[in-house]
Amino acid sequence: MTLRQDDLRELIRRALHEDIPFGDVTSDLLLGDSSRRMSAEAVVKGDRPLVAAGVNVAGLVFQELDNSVDFHPLVTDGRPAHPGDVLFQVKGPAGVLLSGERVALN
Question: What does residue 50 show for φ and ψ, rounded to 5 degrees?
Fold first, then answer.
């Protein structure tokens, strides 16, 4: 099943609203300057290979929060990935990356 781009973006907005309906209080408390840029990557954990899925959707999550985020997928959906492989790298404001990571990884 393929979602239309508008439907996918609406689904992402709803997921973000469910996860951080009043903003990301934890990130706000932990970060002195949430606009400071940082980088992160999603690494395959566990002891078995997996099939990548939703990598580009993860990028859309961060873009929904802030379109200045740089997102670089390193594995294509449908391809195998092994423990230790990096699925994607992302760079942007620290508050945005922390606010979006739960939804992006889910």
Answer: -140, 175
